[in-house]
């Protein structure tokens, strides 16, 4: 497609970035299962290696199947460019890598995916980076946490798993006032429910493993660059604004403008960190993304029905889903993600830890797995699994206390999901069966 901007989301999720294969006419994007690509001649090779010409060299850096997916996700998010990589966690490191140095910090929301909390509290320390956790519902506390070594602000708009919704406009204003890039992990919302760049995010990261692929087949990640952040204004981002010794003194921002972060992500990030997405994974994700809006509408409709039913069940203490009128985030969700608050929520059982474990062991349609965003309905007891490495206080802050079950509502018949939950709750809390 030549002019993609005027098309709607449903059209772009099928077409953006793709065209019939020029060599064969293949209508579906082929899996370019090739490690390397032949140079036209020595001058062509030299131009590619000098970043004077864009093309395919070696699949650690670029691959035609992966390139289609990059353009598709960038288009759906309204970004200038995107870099795909091997997982959502790789995307987070790849997003921070050009911004950080030893001694630098990122300010992160307390409401984050459990794996991200672990990555940020433990692993990034080995690089000399630090994360400071702040309640993003308090913009003043966020502003106060920023210091001279802060290089980014990081959060999730629909936070996994606690049913929390970020006031992204307020957070983006703090980032903007401080001249810092706001990075949003948009995995749980997807660009169908929320587009962070329209609200001031500089970068968007995804675990494409989840809703974008949508069928639980492959892990992947993506970093979308809005193309709008001025990497040269403050002098704080020398990797992007200053001469790059590994490319004969090339300055990425000056040379590539709105695509500076994307080019750096490929030419330095993928080249030297090697967290590459393979073309098979890109293929599965391209197949999944074609139906993203259809699936998200069903995920949301089912989640709303199931959450409303659970809320009335005598064994259930509370349900944290921002799509329920009883949620403190209901009104915010209606402005931040008007098409729905996603397909992921938690609920607490009055019977605590033991009832949760019995419930998890009793489900039949739901699967007990550490994943989310699948067509299948999934459940997990976060406190004993995904959030196990966190302290009890961190678990509570992340919405993953010992009495909480997390569900990722799939696209099955809502009545079948409710019937399955009903029989599992009857086993978990026999004295509190539904009337
Ligand atoms: C799963 C997930 C991640 C990590 O992604 P992987 O692909 O598993 O590495 C990060 N953020 C959120 C919100 C997630 O759900």
Automatic annotation (TrEMBL):
<keyword id="KW-0663">Pyridoxal phosphate</keyword>
<dbReference type="GO" id="GO:0004124">
    <property type="term" value="F:cysteine synthase activity"/>
</dbReference>
<keyword id="KW-0456">Lyase</keyword>
<comment type="similarity">
    <text>Belongs to the trans-sulfuration enzymes family.</text>
</comment>
<dbReference type="GO" id="GO:0005737">
    <property type="term" value="C:cytoplasm"/>
</dbReference>
<dbReference type="GO" id="GO:0030170">
    <property type="term" value="F:pyridoxal phosphate binding"/>
</dbReference>
<dbReference type="InterPro" id="IPR000277">
    <property type="entry name" value="Cys/Met-Metab_PyrdxlP-dep_enz"/>
</dbReference>
<dbReference type="GO" id="GO:0071269">
    <property type="term" value="P:L-homocysteine biosynthetic process"/>
</dbReference>
<dbReference type="InterPro" id="IPR015421">
    <property type="entry name" value="PyrdxlP-dep_Trfase_major"/>
</dbReference>
<keyword id="KW-0808">Transferase</keyword>
<dbReference type="GO" id="GO:0006535">
    <property type="term" value="P:cysteine biosynthetic process from serine"/>
</dbReference>
<dbReference type="GO" id="GO:0018826">
    <property type="term" value="F:methionine gamma-lyase activity"/>
</dbReference>
<dbReference type="InterPro" id="IPR015424">
    <property type="entry name" value="PyrdxlP-dep_Trfase"/>
</dbReference>
<dbReference type="GO" id="GO:0019346">
    <property type="term" value="P:transsulfuration"/>
</dbReference>
<dbReference type="Pfam" id="PF01053">
    <property type="entry name" value="Cys_Met_Meta_PP"/>
</dbReference>
<dbReference type="InterPro" id="IPR006235">
    <property type="entry name" value="OAc-hSer/O-AcSer_sulfhydrylase"/>
</dbReference>
<feature type="modified residue" description="N6-(pyridoxal phosphate)lysine">
    <location>
        <position position="210"/>
    </location>
</feature>
<protein>
    <submittedName>
        <fullName>Methionine gamma-lyase</fullName>
        <ecNumber>4.4.1.11</ecNumber>
    </submittedName>
</protein>
<feature type="region of interest" description="Disordered">
    <location>
        <begin position="1"/>
        <end position="26"/>
    </location>
</feature>
<dbReference type="GO" id="GO:0003961">
    <property type="term" value="F:O-acetylhomoserine aminocarboxypropyltransferase activity"/>
</dbReference>
<dbReference type="InterPro" id="IPR015422">
    <property type="entry name" value="PyrdxlP-dep_Trfase_small"/>
</dbReference>
């Amino acid at each position: 497609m030549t002019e993609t901007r005027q098309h709607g989301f449903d059209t772009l999720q099928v077409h953006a970035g793709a065209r019939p294969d020029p060599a064969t006419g293949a209508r579906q994007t082929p899996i370019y299962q090739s490690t390397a690509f032949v140079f036209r001649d020595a001058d062509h090779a030299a131009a590619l290696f000098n970043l004077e010409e864009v093309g395919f060299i070696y699949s650690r850096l670029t691959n035609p199947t992966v390139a289609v997916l990059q353009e598709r996700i960038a288009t759906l998010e309204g970004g200038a460019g995107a870099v795909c990589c091997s997982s959502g966690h790789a995307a987070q490191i790849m997003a921070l890598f050009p911004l950080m140095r030893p001694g630098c910090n990122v300010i992160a929301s307390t409401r984050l995916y459990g794996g991200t909390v672990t990555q940020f509290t433990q692993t990034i320390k080995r690089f000399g980076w630090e994360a400071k956790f702040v309640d993003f519902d308090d913009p003043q506390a966020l502003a106060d946490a920023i210091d001279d070594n802060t290089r980014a602000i990081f959060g999730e708009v629909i936070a996994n798993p606690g049913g929390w919704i970020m006031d992204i406009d307020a957070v983006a204003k703090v980032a903007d006032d401080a001249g810092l890039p706001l990075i949003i992990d948009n995995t749980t919302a997807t660009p169908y429910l929320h587009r962070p760049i329209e609200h001031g995010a500089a970068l968007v990261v995804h675990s494409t493993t989840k809703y974008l692929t949508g069928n639980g087949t492959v892990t992947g990640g993506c970093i979308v660059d809005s193309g709008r952040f001025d990497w040269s204004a403050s002098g704080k981002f020398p990797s992007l604004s200053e001469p790059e010794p590994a490319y004969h003194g090339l300055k990425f921002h000056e040379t590539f403008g709105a695509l500076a972060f994307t080019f750096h992500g490929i030419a330095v990030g993928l080249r030297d960190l090697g967290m590459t997405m393979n073309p098979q994974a890109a293929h599965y994700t391209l197949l999944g993304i074609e139906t993203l809006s259809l699936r998200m509408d069903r995920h949301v409709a089912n989640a709303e029905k199931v959450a409303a039913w659970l809320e009335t069940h005598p064994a259930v203490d509370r349900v944290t889903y921002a799509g329920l009128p009883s949620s403190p985030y209901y009104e915010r969700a209606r402005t931040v993600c008007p098409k729905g608050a996603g397909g992921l929520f938690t609920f607490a059982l009055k019977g605590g830890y033991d009832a949760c474990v019995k419930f998890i062991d009793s489900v039949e349609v739901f699967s007990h797995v550490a994943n989310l965003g699948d067509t299948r309905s999934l459940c997990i007891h976060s406190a004993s699994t995904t959030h196990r490495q966190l302290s009890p206080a961190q678990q509570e802050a992340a919405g993953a206390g010992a009495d909480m079950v997390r569900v990722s509502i799939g696209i099955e018949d809502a009545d079948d999901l409710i019937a399955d939950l009903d029989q599992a709750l009857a086993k978990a809390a026999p004295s509190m069966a539904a009337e």
